[in-house]
């Protein structure tokens, strides 16, 4: 038997190990990473020797975007706050030139830009070009919520965020999508299993902690530190929106399971939903024109949360408004919109409630909410007796959602809100409802003095 050459064996083992390692790297890049919502490029070079100044990285990024005709705009809260102070000067300055880098060189870990999804498609070319100029990049993708209502398309993923890192500074690129309610939406930045948590300090990102909804933007081109940059035309409005932008989706999966109860598909039910949708859109337009913040309440909120639709037997549209947001113009504005006042109960200081008559027998009820130390409440009045009722809720905040093709607010703590109104059995349809006794959160609140009835009980 011939003696086996040790050097040959060692060489074969080394070759086999190298091939296996290359296969692992290839498999991770092209199979594992895309399935987990993030794609990491091959690491080329190191942080050492690269210019990590924020101004330099921004200039390089904007040059990359310009060379690929990708229209990005600045949404970085820190920078927009600084720019807003000097906006008039920047708008009138011929080139926005400063002797030193005033804005983009401000110390920070990230600079945040945004783009509209429909404005670009050639992702592969851009990412390859980004690698060539020194960027390491990360792509975050997740399910498209616009398709969750379609069982055959549910689970389709879309890109939500990109991060381009050059040395120690990174560009966070947020992808905005147009939704059917005529607004812009961005998704959450959720890292999946195989994403490198040390790629950047993710906790410091200004966008992506939760989904957000914004009005469509009008953009303004200005010269900042010698760079032509698109920014929101109304910076203050955009920054205010950002602080209240949290968005929650309708629960399509739960809504599908709810229809173990046969849905009413009668002509009467279809007509009611059509009229209620029209009434809700008109109410949103009217209150929006007054700058009055409102949310879906009572049965309308239950319909959104339980079945992503208007409850066919509810017979009305219910909205909530904080009493501090009340304006005397509300009643004349609705009357001008073709909705006459049906009743007015209570007064601004106590238990105010308005009801407007919509098309046919569909009415709009607006409940005003009062805040106490540890809870919130709205009132009710029985016209024939003058009895007062109080409906108590745990304190809540407001989020955006989409309902019947409308961007509209709902309580963020929706389940607690629903259970306060309808109890633990809110999933079970109840067609017979007494507003004075059925809600678990109702309690007696005295009686209006007879000498006040003319003011607090007005029927039309």
Q: Can you characterise this structure?
A:
The protein has 460 residues and is of the alpha+beta class. Helix 9 crosses helix 11 (414-422). The chain is elongated, with a radius of gyration of 28 Å. The protein is built from twelve helices and 20 strands. It is 30% helix and 27% strand. Strand 8 and strand 9 form a beta hairpin. It has helices spanning 6-35, 54-67, 77-85, 87-92, 123-132, 235-243, 252-258, 267-290, 298-307, 330-336, 414-422, 453-456, and strands at 73-74, 110-116, 136-143, 157-166, 169-179, 183-186, 212-214, 219-224, 227-232, 295-296, 316-322, 341-347, 350-357, 363-371, 376-381, 387-393, 398-403, 406-411, 442-447, 457-459. The strands form four sheets. Strands 10, 11, 12, 13, 14, 15, 16, 19 and 20 form a nine-stranded mixed β-sheet that branches. Strands 1, 2, 3, 4, 5, 6 and 7 form a seven-stranded mixed β-sheet that branches.
Which range best describes the helical content: under 10%, 10-25%, 25-40%, 40-55%, 55-70% or over 70%? 25-40%
Beta fraction: 25-35%
Can you tell me the overall shape?
Answer: elongated
Number of helices: 12
Radius of gyration using CA atoms only: 28 Å
Runs in which pLDDT lies below 50 for 5 or more consecutive residues are 25-49
Number of strands: 20
The first-to-last residue Cα distance is 111 Å
Question: Average pLDDT, to the nearest integer?
Answer: 88
Instruction: Please describe the biggest sheet, giving its number of strands, its sense, and whether it closes into a barrel.
Output: 9 strands, mixed
- The secondary structure category is alpha+beta
